[in-house]
Amino acid sequence: MMDELELLKKDWRQREEHLPRLTYEEIYKMIWKKSSSLVRWIFYISIIEFTLPHLLYLIPSVRDQGNFEFARRLGIEGWMMAMTVVQYTVAIYFIYQFYKRYREITVLDDAGQLMHRIFRTRRTVKHYVIFCLSMVLLIFLLFIIGMALDDNLVATLDLHGGAEEMDPKKLKLIVIGVVTVMGLLFTALMGLIYFLLYGLLTRKLKRNYWELKRMEA
Amino acid sequence: MNKELEHQFVTELENNQNIVHKVCSLYTDDRDSHNDLFQEITIQLWKAYPKFRGDSKFSTWMYRVALNTAITLYRKSKRRPQTRDYDSVIYKISTEQYDPTEEQHLKLMYSAIRQLGDIDKALVFLYLEEKNYSEIAETLGITEVNARVKMNRIKTKLRTIINP
Predict the structure, then answer these.
(1) Would the pTM count as exceeding 0.95?
(2) Residue B88 lies in a domain
(3) Is 60 exceeded by the pLDDT of residue A37?
(4) In which domain, by residue range, is A117 found?
(5) Are residues B10 and B65 in the same domain?
(6) Partners of residue B96 in chain A, C-beta under 8 Å
């Protein structure tokens, strides 16, 4: 009896006759269609991730009466300014790095190398996201320190509705507690959205990458 | 110049389209996905075509781009209801086969291949296409020894499916 695998090879060759066939025109039309490849998705999502934190500043309430006015009253506006400058500088650096890595991705590499490059590109964005989340936490921390050092929190925060009658120490603890919880929740939520998006996108890629790595082990 | 390049590319692909169809038949389950993947591979081939130097054969170069797309770049656009009427080559039992046991064996082997992971499928595909181990290793980015070891394991697995 013929070896089964040789039989399989033979059959595989015979199956060529049953393959679909596209015409010149059909193929020609295809080359102008838009790619929906993983790399393209990663590119779009990364752009959103890069711009999202900055778009928040375009909302007037966040920019004007919000953080900066509040920061001024707390006396931490110098710090806020410095952090904003740092944030933008680092963002530009990351965008440059990301673009450089993205350009390096080529379908002509071998499968292992290609996957590695995609992961590296994506890692750049991941580091940026971690940096942004750290900045968010830091800003909340700055506010908490500002409030802790403030002697007249009721006036600074312009609180009404019975807050004036409360024990200032107790009030301070409550406000700081609320801000801490808000800060942590906000960061966790942002982190969850980022990593969920990324995780879903690269699930197949990860599986195949590890399959390849296991072969080399 | 650009028109000429387009014409050259489409002609080459038209002549070698079997390779892409075979990859699609291994990596997709229904006709729509087959066409989707075919289109994505075509786009990737076209994007990379200016870098194709011609120092290897067009078909050799196609294997790499097609498999890279199937393994790495392709994303199913959306969940589709399973179409039962799909007559992928891999499901179809060729009319040349008369021996019922042989036919049964082939059926079993094809269904086993379909259940393999994406990378293992690529190995089997290149093996069925009569590629040697150095080419397989180069396409996937693993060492030749590892390609050989892995392929032997898959072969044993396929044999035990038929002769338990």
Answers:
(1) no
(2) no
(3) yes
(4) 35-216
(5) yes
(6) 14
Same domain, yes or no, for B147 and B108?
yes
Kindly report, residue by residue over B95-149, the tens digit of the pLDDT.
555 677 778 888 888 888 988 889 999 999 999 999 999 999 999 999 999 999 9
pLDDT tens digits along A147-160: 888 777 777 777 77
Contact B122 A111 (CB under 8 A): yes
- Chain B residues in contact with A23 by the CB 8 A cut-off are 14
- Residue recorded with tokens 């020609």: A28
Decide: B97 and B106 in contact? Cβ < 8 Å. Answer: yes
Instruction: Answer yes or no: are the C-beta atoms of A24 and B11 closer than 8 Å.
Output: yes
Helix then strand count (H, E) for chain B reads 7, 0
Assigned domain for A102 exists: yes
Assess B94–A contact: CB distance below 8 Å, yes or no: yes
String of b and e for B100-118 (b: at least 16 CB within 10 Å)? eeeeebbeebbebbeebeb
> What's the rounded Cα separation, in Å, for the pair A151 and A170?
13
